[in-house]
Design brief:
The chain is an all-alpha fold. It folds into two domains: 115 residues, Farnesyl Diphosphate Synthase (Orthogonal Bundle); 145 residues, Farnesyl Diphosphate Synthase (Orthogonal Bundle), CATH 1.10.600.10. 74% of the residues lie in helices and 1% in strands. The protein contains 16 helices and two strands. It has a two-stranded antiparallel ribbon. Helix 4 runs antiparallel to helix 8. The two termini are 18 Å apart. The relative contact order is 0.10. The chain binds farnesyl diphosphate (FPP) and magnesium ion. Farnesyl diphosphate (FPP) binds next to helix 4, helix 6, helix 7 and helix 8.
Length: 302
């Protein structure tokens, strides 16, 4: 549990206790082998709602849902590594990964059922949208997508909705303006996914904990590729590299074209602008910690 603040360790401990109460050693061992990230959603909830038994429980629920979605996503994406470690599907197979995801998801929903009805609905509805977003992601990867609107709708649903719901639910817990915090969370979520899509290109596999530039190989035309396609004079070459093995030369060509056309620079600018929009939604609120969170998220390297 190193690198986690004491509050985030409490959340991990809480999830651990839920799993122990299921009384199944295989599930306990599998859970203990999962690498945890920076727990952005929990950081957000605690910054908005403060620390209380209810806010910590909300964090545990959201983290279990998020982890569950990644266990399913790694099966869908046939991913071998996440956060620098072998994925559960790579180590134990797709069936185990799906079922561990189902178990975490069900525990999360059992606990959600015990919370305030409004909060339970907001979170449950976000998971529906999350699943639709993941389906859109799969569908869009079938052909070379050139629609910015479809990309935007997909990242909003796939990533934005759970962050939006976390922020809104935390605001409700703290009796703050939930609409303002929902808008904040939505824009933060969009910025977060765009940064993720940019890092796939700018970072190496060691920093990413997964292969670099894998999105395009996997059929994902993310924001830097959308802008590159719009601007490059060599659209045919870019299309010929879609969903195929990329040699070092191919990768260098894509990166150079992205520099030349400012596709990367402008993708970063869009993410920064969404971050600013998020903060604007909170005008008049005491938001210094949230500003720090946005800045660290935008400047992150993995
Ligand atoms: C990561 O996307 C995936 C998501 C943010 C959402 C995945 C959602 C589902 C699988 C729907 C089912 C939900 C539940 C709760 C069971 P990515 O592949 O772009 O990012 P990555 O690089 O981190 O894999
Ligand atoms: Mg994935």
């Amino acid at each position: 549990m190193k690198n986690l603040t004491p509050q985030l360790q409490i959340i991990k401990q809480q999830i651990n206790e839920y799993i122990i109460s299921c009384d199944n050693q295989q599930c306990i061992d599998l859970f203990n082998s999962l690498p945890f990230g920076k727990m952005l959603r929990s950081q957000l909830i605690l910054k908005i709602a403060g620390i209380s038994p209810e806010s910590l429980k909300l964090c545990a629920i959201i983290e279990m849902i998020h982890t569950s979605s990644l266990l399913h996503d790694d099966v869908i994406d046939k991913a071998d590594t996440r956060r620098g470690k072998l994925t559960i599907n790579a180590k134990f197979g797709d069936k185990i990964s799906i079922l561990l995801g189902d178990m975490l998801y069900s525990i999360a929903f059992s606990q959600l059922a015990l919370m305030n009805q409004n909060i339970a609905y907001i979170v449950a509805n976000a998971v529906t949208q999350l699943s639709i977003g993941e389906m859109m992601d799969i569908e869009l990867a079938n052909t070379f997508n050139t629609s910015y609107d479809k990309y935007y709708e997909m990242i909003y649903k796939k990533t934005g909705t759970l962050i939006e719901a976390s922020s809104k639910a935390a605001a409700l817990l703290a009796s703050k303006d939930s609409d303002k915090y929902a808008l904040f969370g939505k824009n933060l979520g969009l910025a977060f996914q765009m940064i993720d899509d940019i890092l796939d290109i700018t970072q190496d596999s060691t920093a990413l904990g997964k292969p670099s530039m894998f999105d395009f190989i996997d059929g994902k035309v993310t924001i830097p590729y959308l802008l590159l396609y719009e601007r490059t004079e060599n659209k045919d070459k870019l299309k010929s590299l879609f969903k195929v093995f990329l040699s070092k030369e191919d990768m260098s060509w894509i990166k150079e074209e992205m520099q030349k056309t400012k596709a990367l620079e402008d993708s970063i600018a869009q993410a920064v602008s969404l971050g600013k929009k998020a903060l604007e939604a909170l005008k008049g609120e005491d938001n210094i910690f949230l500003e720090e969170l946005i800045n660290s998220m935008i400047k992150r390297t993995f």
